[in-house]
Amino acid sequence: MAATATTKDATGTVLSAIILILVAVLAFSIRLFSVIKYESVIHEFDPYFNYRVTQYLSKNGVYDFWNWFDDRTWYPLGRVIGGTVYPGLTLTAGTMWWIFNSLNIPLSVETVCVFTAPIFSANAAWATYLLTKEVKGIGAGLTAAALIAMVPSYISRSVAGSYDNEAVAIFALVFTFYLYIKTLNTGSLFYATLNALAYFYMVCSWGGYTFIINLIPMHVLLCIITGRYSSRLYIAYAPLVVLGTLLAALVPVVGFNAVMTSEHFGSFLVFIILNVVALGHYIKRTVSAKMFKVAITLVISFGMVVSVALAAILVASVAASPTKGWSGRSLSLLDPTYASKYIPIIASVSEHQPPTWPSYFMDINVLAFLVPAGIIACFLPLSDASSFLVLYIVTSVYFSGVMVRLMLVLAPAACILSGIALSEAFAVLTRSIKFKQDKSEVLMDESNNGSKTSQPEKDKEIVRERPSKKSRRMEKENVEKVLEKKEVKQWSLLLPVEASAVGILLLIVLGSFYVVHCVWAAAEAYSAPSIVLSSHTPEGVHVFDDFREAYAWLSHNTDIDDKVASWWDYGYQTTAMANRTVIVDNNTWNNTHIATVGTAMSSPERQAWEIFQSLDVKYVFVVFGGLVGYPSDDINKFLWMVRIGGGVFPHIKEPDYLRDGQYRIDSQATPTMLNSLMYKLSYYRFTEADGKGFDRVRRTEIGKKYFKLTHFEEVFTTHHWMVRIYKLKPPKNRLRGKNKKRSKSSSKGGKSSSWKKQEKRNPWH
Amino acid sequence: MDLERLGTAGDGAIRSRRGREREQENGKYLIALVGMSVLLLSTYQTCVAAAADWRSELVILRVDRKIDLTSHIVRVVMSLKVENTGSTRASDVIVAFPPGQVDNLAYLRASAAEGRGKNKVTVPLTANPFQSEDVPSGAALFSIALLKPLNKGETVTIEVLSVFTHSLMPLPEEITQAQSQLVIYRDSAYVLSPYPVKLQSTTVKTPSPRIESYTKVDPTKVVDAEIKYGPYENLPAFSFSSFIVHFENNQPFAVVKELVREIEISHWGNVQITEHYHLVHGGARLKAGFSRIEYQARPNIRGASSFKSLVARLPPRAHSVYYRDEIGNISTSHLKSDTRKTELEIEPRYPMFGGWQATFTIGYGLPLQDFLFQAADGRRYLNLTFASPFNDVVIDKLIVKVALPEGSKDPHVSIPISSVDQQQETKYSYLDTVGRTVVVLSKKNVIPEHNVFFQVYYNFSTFSMLAEPLMLVTGFFFFFLACILYSHFDFSISKSSVSYLAKLQREEVQDAIQRLQSVMNLRLAVSEKLEASLRDLARTGDVQACKAARKAADATLKDTAKELKSIHEFLQSSTQASHILPKVEELIHKEKEKQEKLLLKHSIVVDSVDKKLPSKEIDSRIASHEQKLVLLKQEVDELLQAVDDI
Known about the structure:
The complex is a heterodimer. Chain A is mainly α. Chain A folds into two domains: 10-261 and 326-424, no CATH class; 544-728, 3-Layer(aba) Sandwich (Rossmann fold). Chain A has 36 helices and eleven strands. A five-stranded mixed sheet of chain A has the order 6-5-7-11-10. Chain A is globular. Residues 440-492 and 740-765 of chain A have low confidence and may be disordered. Chain B is an alpha+beta fold. Chain B has three domains: 58-248, tricorn interacting facor f3 domain (Immunoglobulin-like), CATH 2.60.40; 254-466, Immunoglobulin-like, CATH 2.60.40; 498-645, no CATH class. Chain B has eleven helices and 31 strands. Chain B has a ten-stranded mixed sheet with strand order 3-6-5-4-7-2-1-11-14-13. Chain B is elongated, with a radius of gyration of 49 Å. The model of chain B is unreliable at 1-52 (pLDDT under 50). The A-B interface holds A 39, 41, 103-106, 230-231, 462-464, 466, 468, 471, 474-476, 478-479, 482-483, 486, 531-532, 543, 545, 548-549, 551-553, 556-557, 577, 685, 688-689, 713-719, 721, 727 and B 288-293, 296-297, 324-325, 327-332, 349-350, 355-359, 428-433, 511, 514-515, 517-518, 521-522, 524-525, 529, 640-641, 644-645. Chain B: It is a single-pass type I membrane protein. Chain B: Belongs to the OST1 family. Chain B: Keywords: Coiled coil, Endoplasmic reticulum, Membrane, Signal, Transmembrane, Transmembrane helix. Chain B: InterPro entries: Ribophorin_I (IPR007676).
């Protein structure tokens, strides 16, 4: 008996190990579509910055990295990289690179960066397995791991080349949760310490760590309120707060924020409450019931006084800050309308918009339907761990509803709960088939033990729903032996064999639908590196490689110290690929600076020239999709430039660029629009391309067709016109005669007065 | 207008020549080597021996010179017919180059025709730099060793090919996109020669008939794209008459500032070649901006001086070809391959205009057996071409790095080109332990003519190939061994330490409590069964079934009671269990009480049913027990919870 059990055990272990390895392979390889279909290259915008930082790290070492002041961006301000970047990702990739190179495996930094995300999604799948196993057993764990290995939401952020913080952070998030649950289940201080370290890694990796430091306190509070306080809870939480906060403060970008901002106050408050409760329990254990009542009133009243005093201090200090101690991004989470009202720069990023319903289906697919079942499964029975899962899914659903980007946080929760739901459903269905078939046998043969994986669930039912399962492993077979008969009776609600077979079939169909969707999403939707575009034509794939063409041109044919201005979206790419100094980049830390560039782009040529000249800019480039129909070009982003510029420099007014509230660039467009630098740089000599000046993105003919540039000259335009680079003419061209001529010609146009006004109000003069 | 241009151009040329002269002084011996080609190995002694009477009584009967200006590489072919009029035998013929030209001389090859008619074969001759004080205005001399010494009255015909780079100067130096590129070339209309020349003529071939201007040295004739100087008769030694041609040349002025070729040999069947280019358009610089609309509308006119693509001829069976730069793959390339060659056409990311630069990397793999051979003495050697596979590019600096496999020894390079610097480095690649020997060859001013085969010989034992796989195997072996050992050994520091023993005891106690809990669960299940049987009884009135249940319950309870006793005894004996013992005792006690009460209740009910008492009376009989039972149940539950928490 014992021998068979151990063999079964061993088979199960080996089987799950193999499954886990396969899941890791799946997670890694499904993310390689981008490399196979395109190339091994860094994607999008932020990853280029991370890549550049990693390059710096691998070249100059970690100490120089902490002290790195980058003068090639935010000219003339510069940026302290070491103190403003979440270093987790770069340190991880840098360490991996260092290990490879010290083993004489000469991988380039780029290769390591490209494959960091797939590697870490394999890790995330394992972490998910551990977390789910801790809550609902191995079967659910394996299912959840398989689900998260290919969930489209996570794939979208972690394909090969998508070298962004989230890639590492999701692993850190799930792993931290796992260690928390593990500590909660075992009460081991060892895991508690590990938990604090995992939390530290998460803080290093991503600003989303505030989710952890708010979710775990919420769960602790929930446990206390529902009377589930235990010493294990104390061990799980107290070290995390103390060690975790200390460690978090070590990360330069967080620093004193770890104790100063409102995001962290919740955890401290819960820490106090937890201590009070712990004290209460201690007193209860040591004194008699009568004394306890007295003591507890004392403790509570004293605690109340202290906490009220603390709260008063907190409120006072918090109220002193205008945002009540919250960062803009957190505030826009709590109040979804906040960003669009006050911070256009956050609102202008498409990933900060609320998602639409189809995007849920796109990103988590069938999981959306399985999650409710998973939640129900979590209540059967409700344990500390499963209540945590419920809390996790509820909060992450809310957050994902506010920002499409936070769909990423929802994905692991959805996978875990769907894994639980699927596994439970399979357990029920397979069990009903099994016991229907050999019911009589089972009744006779008591030694039949049933499958190992479903055993824990059965035990739970019998053992009078006691929450702690720490002893599950050690329970002796004889219990099970006797209970077997009873259990079959208990499962008298077994489904008919036919129904269960159909059910299993349906579940398999559902699963395969999910797999097909995920593979499709990975291959088609999320693998494009966005710096290379491709379109399918009858002759084959046509590649639009204009961005790199422009960056390569800038990098080889301009002076190394030239300053290049563009909208901030392209800042990271310009510094990384063209190696030129930029004015603004995707780290939107200085709103005024961005507004200056926005103002320049929205101003008429001369004013724009003056602004750029004052910033020592030599080249300006715009992204223009009108010729080939590339929709996310600068003309489509132009209103945000106007808004952001107008937010700081009030002479830029949004209505000036709109005709009857409509944004248009055709002949109905406003003169301000048609004279803005953005319009001119985008459409300079565009009419000559097709004779009409038909913009294929806006699907209209442009308003102003023939014009000349006086202060800028075209120096380079890429093959598909997607990037147009202009050079500022040197100041000596500002001849008096020319100015006179211009003012003469503009006075004819009848809009000179408004121009002159603007000239006076130019922020730089 | 033209004259003025020429004047300025001349000034520029003179200035640059002065600059070069300075260089020449700085590194005289290097300059002597630069750009010279030796086809057969020879020693310096021969030159010195000949030096005494180098200006022997040779006369050049006839020189035909063809200057080919159709690309940006200037190729000059001279055919000399030499007669010995003196009395001594002459073993060398000296050719001379004007001082400005020799700095740009990339390649020199001399050959003589032997045999007649169909049997005619050209035999390469040796050419060496040659120094003599007796030369006007610093002309550079090269001595060509004849196959056999020339006796009095004999004639010999030799052909000399000399190739010059950077000899076409753009004028104007900056042009707009729409202009086509004009360059000037300067040379002497008379072939510079240390011997008197009887008859000579020079043909200058330009790429297009558009010749802006040229110097007339009568008789001069222009036919289409050819300028013909001469024939000139009976000119004394070192006659010189400068001419300048100003003409259109829109050929790609592709100059590679630096090319690093990395060749890596893997004995597992591959030769991997990676070439890093830094490409420059060496022609007239682009003035003002580049307009895509004009370029797209009429690329041949509005971008005449630019070039868009380059063609490389890779060896046949080249595979895994890639073309990229530091920011990723470049998608504009075409690969055509057949059995004789692989042709790679690449386009830089943007069309190359004057002064524009680009960097890129191409890489490809070659099958090992095509390029690696075993020499007769057991050494292996790599046989590969030296320079770039691209047509018509000038390489200012070429560095070839041949990484031999790990464990190879005594590398030796055999290359039929002179002035190649050699060095050795060590490189660490995949899983290397001692590193690979890298032979580094570098040469300046390389042209397509230098693309000859060179050999790297080295000793290599096949066992070295197995080193890395074996290393991996042992690595994994020890890893798994460590895993096995780890899982089989107990790593506690001391088996007799107090804390270890305490831990063992704690575990035992925990085990005991586990057992206790399972027994308790069993007993609870039994009581539940009893209750259930009672309920059944009330429903069906089947007393026998109820009695059977009772019997079974009695048996189990008896069994478990024994176990409970043993657990209790164990806990009593254990020191670690002292703090939970009271609870456990209480639990056992209460549970027992509860079971007894339940049994009592059971028997009462069964009895009553047997006696067919009304249900009301039964209820009243067991009411007091019921109350106690509920109370006990609660207590037992609490105790169980408490024990569990411990």
